[in-house]
Amino acid sequence: MKHEIKTLFLLLVLAFMILPRSFAQEFISSMDVDASINKDGAVSITETIKYDFGSAEKHGILRNIPYKKTNQDGKKYIMKIENISVVDENGEAYKFTKSTDGTYINIKIGDPNYTISGKHTYVIKYSVYGALTYFDTFAEFYWNAVGSEWKVPIMSSEVKLRFLGEFEEGRLDGRCFTGAPGANSQKCSVEVGDSYVSFRTGRVDPSENFTVVAKFPLDYAARLEPTEDKSPIIGKIIAAFFTIVGIVFYLILPLYLLIKFKIQNKKLKDAAKIVSAWFSPPKTPQGSQLTPVETVITANVTAGRKAIPATLVSLAQRGYMKIVQKNGKEFAFVKTEKEPDDILRDYEESLYNAIFSDGKDEVSTKDLPSNTKFGKVSLTIARDAGKYLKKEKVFEKNPTDVFTGYTVLAVFAIFFMNIFLALVAFIFGRKSAKRTYEGTQTYSEALSLKNFLVSQDPQFDFQAQEMIFFEKLLPYATAFGVEDVWIKRFKNLFNTNPEWYEGRDLTKLAVMNSVVSASTRIATSSRSTSGFSSGFSGGHSGGGGGGGGGGSW
Q1: What is the pLDDT at residue 177?
Q2: How far apart are CA 412 and CA 424, in angstroms?
Q3: What single-letter DSSP state applies at residue 284?
Q4: CA separation (Å) from 220 to 46, 134, 518, 524, 526?
């Protein structure tokens, strides 16, 4: 009996220890955001936070709002957050203090001499300058309405974005994302009206976001960009540096580079054996056949504007896809049974995967401008091809990096009014990637092939008698931008289309190439003027501005 009483006593003690903690569990019953997109480009935000302290005795809540955001290039930009006020549901002001660290505006709400418990409502108002992003044809508000740094769960959240005036149907659009930072799950709903876009979601746990994005006409609001986060000391160091090396920068450096390029170019011409015609794709010193884009880089250092369509034609020729002419300027890429294998270069496989990234077996050229993965591959294909050429000892360094480096130097020189250096870097420097001794032969073959592809000399007509020969070099002609010349030379052979092309006329392939090139430029420009990506192309939870979090104190 005594043992049972002792056990019961221990259970009661344990219960009394646990129950207060369970009743003291804090949470936010709802966090609603009302945002007005103003004509001057500012955004007026009202956060209504219904915080339940349970039985815990606290002073109030903390709200930490990031005032910096990072673009696709890793550059940080500063948004101004001003006009902060905090009231309760009846409009009565709360005591609060505001402080700023390197990333957040920290709002500490409550009276340090007074404790509270139970349910309390906090209405936080503030204005954000630089929260909008501007693209070629639309503007966007991409915002982490609930940040991942809240210490307590939020049971529900509703966001309403309001606009002044009404829009025609289709001019407003919205998307939302939930989950951990980087997730693209969409456990939320969107409602689009003629003057608003609203979003709703259920429970948001700590370490999760509720991110919303609204698209609206570009001319609706004034352009109000965030400012780039630059440390003043960097400017002083740069100014001091150019003061010291001014003479070298303006005189000695351009002269040195010019002499260096002239000597290097003479050695290359003396060593190369250029012929008027070469009928096969060039090979590396190790004997590997170059792809069309690698061939152009070997001959010209830069990949040119036809790298993507040339690679697509090459993939189709080798059986990985089929090119189908739909109508006019619309073409489609259709999967075949042949999957990417070890024969493909890494960048060829990346391009293939980007084209079919949505899981469809047929992709229209109309879909390419909105394909973010396609745009990203378009930006890196030349550099990846250059990396391969360096690995195969055709060049001593990645030629694309050299080309880009001297382009940056030319722009830099213009900025500092060093026209001499700018001209030397732009005209000679960008083409100065040094080839290896063994790579000189590869260069000779690439330039000789180019001579043959662009030539219309009748003495080469004996080669233009086999469809196999035409197909073999068509991607290379495309890469050099002379596919129209190449197709005209072989036009008498087009009794039937090759297996990899379906359409009325193979000569329309040049049209497809121009469509793909234009789509590439559009897809790679799916960035705001400050370099931010769009929430409508690759958006994800935590991808917008704002966010942060908070808790109690």
Answers
A1: 92
A2: 13
A3: -
A4: 21, 11, 27, 24, 19
Closest CA to 326 of 377, 365, 371: 365
Place of tokens 């250029």: 274
Q: What is the pLDDT of residue 1?
A: 45
Task: Report the alpha-carbon distance of residue 108 to residue 548 in Å, rounded.
Answer: 14
Strands 138-146 and 545-546: parallel
The one-character DSSP state at 93 is: B
Tell me whether strands 157-163 and 27-37 are parallel, antiparallel or unpaired. parallel
Residue 406 identity = Y
What average pLDDT does range 275-279 have in this prediction? Answer: 69
Domain boundaries, the chain: 25-227, 275-398+433-523
Across 325-336, average pLDDT: 88
**Token pair of 330 as six digits:** 């619309």
104, 141, 165, 201, 453 from 197: Cα distances, Å: 27, 11, 13, 14, 55
**Count of beta carbons in the 10 Å neighbourhood of residue 551:** 17
Residue with tokens 């709903």: 189
Region of 268 (left: φ > 0; alpha: ψ -120 to 50; beta: rest) is: alpha
What is the spatial distance between Cα 56 and Cα 23, in angstroms, rounded to a whole number?
8
The predicted-structure confidence for 122-146, as pLDDT tens digits, reads as follows 999 999 999 898 888 889 999 999 9
Average pLDDT, the chain: 83
Query: DSSP secondary structure string, 435-453?
Result: BPTTHHHHHHHHHHHHHHH
For the chain, what percent of residues have pLDDT higher than 70? Answer: 86
Percent of the chain with pLDDT over 90: 37
What is each CA distance from 414 to 235, 259, 329, 383, 419, in whole angstroms?
Answer: 18, 20, 40, 25, 6
Name the residue with tokens 């401008």. 369
Q: What is the assigned CATH class of domain 25-227? A: mainly beta
How far CA 341 is from CA of 344, 345, 352, 358, 387, in Å, comes to: 6, 9, 11, 20, 20
The answer to whether the beta carbons of residues 187 and 211 sit under 8 Å apart is: no
CA distance 251 to 418: 9
Q: What is the DSSP string of 513-547?
A: HHHHHHHHHHHTT-B-TTSPBPTTTT--TT-SEE-
Between strands 80-87 and 104-110, the pairing is unpaired
Q: In which band, very low, low, confident or very high, does the pLDDT at 117 lie, cut at 50, 70 and 90? A: very high
User: What pLDDT is stored for residue 392 in this prediction?
Assistant: 92
The answer to whether 396 touches 436, Cβ cutoff 8 Å, is: yes
Cβ pair 499, 288 in contact under 8 A: no
Contact by Cβ (8 Å): 389, 434? no
Residue that wins the pLDDT comparison between 506 and 258: 258
465 vs 38: CA distance, rounded Å: 67
